[in-house]
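ok so I'm stuck.
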Amino acid sequence: MRSLLKFRYFFLLLLCVHCKEAPKSIQGSSVSESDGGNSEIAGNQGEQVILFFGDSLTAGYGIELEEAFPALIQQRLDSLNLEYTVINSGLSGETTSGGLNRINWVINQKVDVFVLELGANDGLRGIPLDQTRSNLQAIIDYVKKKDSETIIVLAGMQIPPNMGPEYTTEFRSIFPELAQKNQIPLIPFLLDGVAGIPELNLEDGIHPTPEGHKLVRENVWAVMKDVLK
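replied:
not stuck anymore, here's the structure
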């Protein structure tokens, strides 16, 4: 209960610190069609900060805030007595372009671990792949320039084959290529074991249910546990 209240407390403060309307998503083609988002706040004194920067998958579209995987990561950290404060900076409908536009006011305090989860909306909209790659690299560059000690973790994403096999394959390759280029940890596929499984997703077939988010947490934790050593 303490960790849930703690996470909700920080999320609400984030909403108060900054308000920004999410990009309007294309009907039926975006990871989320709702507006919303949050920004930053420093962690408790003596605690390190983990910031999840993403779209509606991070924001927990369609479920309670404390059921989304960033809050579940906070619970895991608290259960292990690890002094980290998780910040959920997920914005529903966000693209890599939108993320690049708001990164400057999200990263304005010390962040120890930055988890970059963006790109799904780009893929579903058919945004040119070189643009998605360039935007993600620019976000990585900005975080590095802001604080070279910040550990950046990249969340890999895949999309359905609607855009054709060539686009789908190249989209999937963006994330491991960027991780290798920048020598940063990679979550191979954020929705591994969740995507395409009806009972683990909401009626839209895209956003995880609370049970789905528990599996997403494990995908994230498999990488994060080594980062936090």
